[in-house]
Sequence to fold (219 residues):
Amino acid sequence: MSTLPVPGGESRLRERMVYFGRSLFDRGLTAGSSGNISVRLDDGWLLTPTNACLGELDPARLAKLDWQGRHLSGDPPSKEAFLHRSMYEERQGAGAIVHLHSTHSAAVSCIDGLDPANCLPPLTAYYVMKIGRLPLVPYHRPGDSALGHAIRGLAGKHSAVLLANHGPVVSGTTLEAAVYATEELEETAKLFLLLRGTPISPLNRQQIDELKSVFQLDL
Ligand SMILES: [Zn+2]
Fold:
């Protein structure tokens, strides 16, 4: 698999994973040992360890893997490693991936009757710019490798997907971009839930086309 240059090097990225893990945990965006963060390196990728609390990561103990799935160093990787690997395989430009069980996104993922091609409306311009269209991946039990296959089928065209009855998987060109996009998704899910039952006026086709044109979005 081709790799991207990593600004700042591996040690800097390890520190940033710890920083963002604590930030997400401290703000209630992940609970217990749920959620995982990964970054692409020149010689493999880093992933948060299995059963690790994102608020208490140790930069030296992050799991390092190669693209064949071998565990090279650190603590054993998250059992959800295949979610990340499936998305990296389809998105050569992805430098980092965040997967959370964040409350509002997970709540939306449990709603009956969502559009599986795009399960949140375009409520704000920033949501359109950071997430765009959000497909819903059907429910799979934890560890089911068919979930990786389902993600690969969508990740070529989508930087983010929502796993039904589970939570979001969001990629970005950098760790910061992946974290901020995950937060934008969570905030939009919160708005969507706040507005349930209220007539809403999402961005219309013309407004979305204007964003696509001005910001060169690939939606
Ligand atoms: Zn999960």
Summary: The two ends are 25 Å apart (CA to CA). DSSP finds seven helices and eight strands in the chain.
